[in-house]
TrEMBL record:
The lineage of its organism: Eukaryota, Fungi, Dikarya, Basidiomycota, Agaricomycotina. The chain crosses the membrane at residues 12-29. Its cofactor is heme. Keywords: Heme, Iron, Membrane, Metal-binding, Monooxygenase, Oxidoreductase, Transmembrane, Transmembrane helix. It is found in: Membrane. The keyword Hydrolase does not apply. One of its GO terms (cellular component) is membrane. This is N/A. The gene is I1R980. One of its GO terms (molecular function) is iron ion binding. Belongs to the cytochrome P450 family.
Length: 382
């Protein structure tokens, strides 16, 4: 044993071992560098975003509270840049696109934030074939909701469900549900007069009964009806799964609920709406859909309400199917795509003084202005 140790410690053997280890390390590093270069190039071509941590990525960059506001700030801070890849040409992306695309990496998953109407239209409308899928949610799979049209990835079954849905809820079919909605509105007003302190309960009941009638033909007249309780429990389970859920009842509820503080904070808007209703409808009946064209100010209030208080501030999450490139930026497959609808609706270049509730921005000479940007048209993708 001693002889072996002496042999290993000899200058000749030590030099040989040092040389072999050096050659091995050089070979490994060359191979690593050749494999890392394409990866470096890909990372350099990703849309701009905050630097991340190993493994965790940008986990601690996710905003708390109201994420749509935090995402807009990330866009303002990191969204515009030109990239220089070492040893390669400068990649300069379109300024509009760069300033409104932000890339985050969360535990190895790519997230793309869009803060611009044009970019959202380019990726989710013009390239909808590649960007119309849905990100996989473990929570959805665990509770068995993957069959739902809302959570279903793009493909054969999604197209089949969309076709079935479209047959009953396309724009041309909307007028046949107006009677149901008017009946629900009348019931809501009656219950508010009887018990004004139960506003939230009355709104949820009115919207729930309208949806049950339209979707299932069920006429639920009493608030303590067992079927309504089952319906509300089902909606709450969906809300737990998806923050900012796109379920119709939740969107309608959020819109109606936000109307009350908007009018309370802006009494001048309330007075103008009251004057228009008195002039067109009068004191002896309730307004109907037939009066809509004669109530431009009330219509403008609805548009401004949808802009001022976005019911789905981050829209519906989409997912890319294959690798893509947009304005010099690389978008990997399986990237979750979020459109910051709130940021779009509060873009000061599109809506001056976006923090103000001002229905007049949609009017011109007392009528609806067809050239005014309409927040109801901000709907992207499939």
């Amino acid at each position: 044993m001693a002889a072996s140790l002496d042999a290993l410690s000899s200058p000749t053997v030590s030099g040989t071992v040092f040389l072999l280890i050096s050659l091995f390390l050089v070979t490994v590093l060359r191979r690593k560098s050749s494999g890392l270069l394409p990866l470096l190039q890909v990372r350099q071509r990703l849309p701009p975003g905050p630097p991340g941590l190993p493994l965790l990525g940008n986990l601690f960059d996710l905003p708390q509270g109201s994420p749509w506001i935090g995402y807009r700030e990330l866009s303002r801070r990191y969204g515009a840049s030109s990239r220089l890849v070492p040893g390669h040409e400068i990649i300069v992306a379109d300024a509009r696109a760069s300033g409104n695309l932000v890339h985050l990496q969360i535990l190895g998953r790519s997230i793309l934030l869009i803060n611009d109407v044009g970019v959202a239209s380019d990726l989710l409308e013009k390239r909808s074939t590649n960007n119309s899928s849905r990100p996989v949610s473990t929570a959805v799979e665990m509770v068995g909701w993957e069959w739902s049209f809302v959570f279903m990835p793009y493909g054969k079954w999604w197209r089949w469900h969309r076709r079935a849905f479209w047959q009953h809820f396309h724009p041309g079919a909307v007028p046949k549900y107006r009677g149901i909605l008017e009946q629900g509105a009348h019931r809501l007003l009656g219950r508010l007069l009887a018990a004004p302190d139960q506003l939230e309960k009355h709104i949820r009941y009115a919207l729930g009964t309208s949806i049950c009638k339209a979707a299932h033909g069920l006429d639920i007249a009493e608030q303590d009806d067992e079927r309504m309780e089952i319906f509300q429990r089902a909606l709450k389970s969906v809300d737990v799964l998806v923050e900012g859920s796109t379920v119709l009842e939740r969107k309608q509820y959020a819109t109606i609920q936000s109307l009350f503080p908007a009018l309370a904070l802006h009494p001048e808007v309330q007075r103008s709406a009251r004057a228009e209703l008195d002039r067109v409808v009068g004191p002896n009946r309730l307004p109907t859909f037939a009066d809509q064209d004669d109530l431009p100010y009330v219509s403008a209030i609805i548009k401004e309400l949808l802009r001022w208080h976005s019911v789905a501030p981050l829209g519906v999450a989409h997912c890319s199917v294959a690798d893509d490139e947009y304005n010099g930026h690389f978008i990997p497959a399986d990237t979750t795509i979020l459109v910051n609808m709130w940021a779009i609706a509060h873009d000061p270049t599109r809506y001056p003084e976006p923090g103000r509730f001002r229905p007049e921005r949609y009017l011109k000479e007392g009528e609806l202005n067809p050239d005014a940007p309409d927040p109801t048209e901000f709907c992207f993708g499939r």
